Amino acid sequence: MASGSTDQLLKINSRRQLSYTCKKLIKFSRHIAGRIHMPDTAHQLQQIYMAGFELKTFDRFPKCVGVVRDDCIALLVPGPDGLQMLGTPGWQIGEVMGVLTEVGGRQVFQAKTEMVEATPERLEKLRQFREELQNLMRTSH
């Protein structure tokens, strides 16, 4: 993809795409962790997928997998203890992730110039999303 172009979000909607993404993550995991024993990232992704989360890849972040449910989104990367979240989960705004911030004294999810109000309902959804995803990553080692 040419530099300066917008990121393209690709849905992982088949076993073949899921397998390909898992293989990319496993290869990267081995690269950063050497030959030490690591949790099986493919198994972790499978458990996350089976729990009803959608998996996505990003051209701009080839070593990350996006995990989405109910408009909440998190980026996962392989680490020495298996998959881990990169940064803080946010809110999906179109094809990008809005981060929680404050504008004019009110909380919003913002992605560049686009904003979505951070209502108590959305904040609770995001809290539950983060908690369930963290639990899945811990228990699927």
Task: Identify the notable features of this structure and list them briefly.
141 residues, nine-stranded antiparallel beta sheet, disordered N terminus
Give a written overview of the molecule.
With 141 residues, the chain is α+β, with helices and mostly antiparallel strands. The protein has one domain (9-139). 35% of the residues lie in helices and 34% in strands. The protein contains 3 helices and 9 strands. Strands 1, 2, 3, 4, 5, 6, 7, 8 and 9 form a 9-stranded antiparallel β-sheet that branches. Strand 6 (90-93) and strand 7 (96-103) form a beta hairpin. Helix 1 runs antiparallel to helix 2. 25% of the residues are buried. Mean pLDDT is 82; it is low at 1-10.
Summarize the structure.
By secondary structure, this protein is an alpha+beta fold.
The rounded distance between the terminal residues' Cα atoms is 35 Å
- Structural class from helices and strands? alpha+beta
Task: Characterize the biggest β-sheet.
Answer: 9 strands, antiparallel
Helix fraction by DSSP (H/I, runs of at least 4): 25-40%
Number of strands: 9
Identify low-pLDDT runs. 1-10
Count of structural domains? 1
Radius of gyration equals: 16 Å
The portion of residues forming beta strands comes to 25-35%
Q: How large is the count of helical segments?
A: 3
Shape: globular
Nearest-integer average pLDDT: 82
The secondary-structure element order is EHHEEEEEEEEH
Topology readout:
Elements: E1 9-12, H1 15-33, H2 41-50, E2 54-58, E3 65-69, E4 72-79, E5 82-85, E6 90-93, E7 96-103, E8 106-111, E9 114-117, H3 120-139
Antiparallel strand pairs: 1-2, 2-3, 3-4, 4-5, 4-6, 6-7, 7-8, 8-9
